[in-house]
Amino acid sequence: MEWNSKNGKRLKEERDRMGLSQQEVADKFKKTSRTIQYYEKGEKGGFTMLECIELHEMGFDVCYIATGKKNGTKTFKKENKNLEYNNENHPA
Fold first, then answer.
1. Number of domains in the chain
2. Residue 88 CB contacts under 8 Å (≥ 6 apart), including other chains
3. pLDDT tens by residue, 25-47
4. Lesser CB count within 10 Å: N end or C end of the chain?
5. Contact (Cβ atoms closer than 8 angstroms) between residue 17 and residue 75
């Protein structure tokens, strides 16, 4: 999949839904907040497959980011600056 501005817009929507800053996402993936800004504008790259799996495990709707089709999401919670998620099948 080629990363574009639509993917970037949906990444930002998901990040906002999760209540995360660009810096928090950047820290999780050892990237700069500027890199996340580039991703959200569709100006650069995007995430690797392994990073997409991590995004999914954090509660991001990766299917939506990639295709624009909602796939359902997990309930997300932030505690003590640790990124954790909850759902019925995967309690934190």
1. 1
2. none
3. 999 999 999 999 999 999 888 88
4. N
5. no
